[in-house]
Amino acid sequence: MNFGDHVRRAHAGGVLVVQPRMGMSDPAAMRAGLEATKHADADTVGTVTLDSYTRTGDLESVRRALCEGVELNGYPIVSYPAEVTRKMLDGLVEDGFPVQVRHGSARPLAIVRALLDVGLHATEGGPVSYCLPYGRIPLDESVRNWEASCELAVQTLAGTGVQPHLETFGGCMMGQLCPPSQLVAISVLEALFFYGLGVRSLSVSYAQQTNTDQDVEAVRALRSLCRQLLPEASWHVVIYAYMGVYPRTVGGSQALMAEAVRLAVATGSERLIVKTAAEASRIPTVQDNIDSLEFATAMAREYRHGALHAESEALAAAAPAPTDSQVYQEAYALVAEVLSGAADVGGALIGAFKRGLLDIPYCLHPDNAGRARSYLDENGRLCWSELGELPLGGIAEVRPGRRITSGDLLRVLGYVRDKFDAVALDRGAGHPAGAAGRRILEGKPE
After folding, report:
1. Cα(291)–Cα(446) distance, rounded to whole angstroms?
2. Tens digits of residue pLDDT in 260-303
3. End-to-end alpha-carbon separation of the chain, Å?
4. Which of 21, 38, 194, 445 is an S-S bond match for 199, by CB 3.0 to 4.6 Å?
């Protein structure tokens, strides 16, 4: 079954699909990780995360590491013979357990070819989101690479009964400090880019940020824009648990994870990619990932049907109508201006960054204008302090202030970590994670 069909069918059955980030260089270890994910007490899909050498196309370093027995930080799918990976996956991938390849590459063609060769069909990324934060190549080269990769996937799977599935990474740009409206806009634009190249099975991402109320507005805006602009596509929403500086305490990390689950349930999101309590100190083990998958599933059941149901209902009820929110108004304006007069989405994205119509705060890539800036307001909402050439004049409330210092930047980067660690240490005045976080720390949901 197609990856997207599986997730949507599970959601229709009343469950939140959860997914780890997991990649090991040794095929036996990678298989063991997938087996553990498959048999967790959770509604899971599998992940094969690739190593950083493969991500950057440095296959000579992969070859040398494998020859010398050096462990990589992910699975080198391009360098292993296809038969090795087929054996690693044998008997694991089936209708109830699809597997997605995650990589982070602005040069994904060899990766897409390799995953298709071993019978997989689901991956993620995007020409913007896998170029500006991570890539060292120009944006127009990334766009061409992604065009070729999409065309390869569509042509290879044509007539097989399996559709390629692509997930945008645009809802995560830089992980932190990009206001939600631009995350939504880029996620939608990357989905339109994929769709324009013939990909019909899509997921659109949004990464948990610094204020849950604002996150709810963002996910609802994302849904509204997809319904308007992708009426013929099959799509679902995937939430990424917080991608920035993570809490150092177990309690704090669990409270943050629970808040991601509450966001997913309150917005009707179909899939959640988890993080673990080990994030702040080391690379998570397989067991760390299983613990997080099962924790997220237990919390989702509580928010859907259990003692915490009223909290997810209240969160959804408190949000403005999807198209009335500030996040929607800004995201709509960004998408409309980028697409205005463009012949194709790839060209529109390149032109938008050249003109500063899209501009990622604190992103140092040469193709990013670097004139837009953001700040956290007193409630932790991500707002604009400088617009640069973003087409948000008269729409976004801008609060110009003094230039941000390195100390200011470190403080805001640690905002979520400090907020949730404070809950764990039971010293947070006003209990910033809310009643849900306190119950978690007291062990009540379990």
Report:
1. 13
2. 999 999 999 999 999 998 988 888 999 999 999 999 999 999 99
3. 33
4. 194
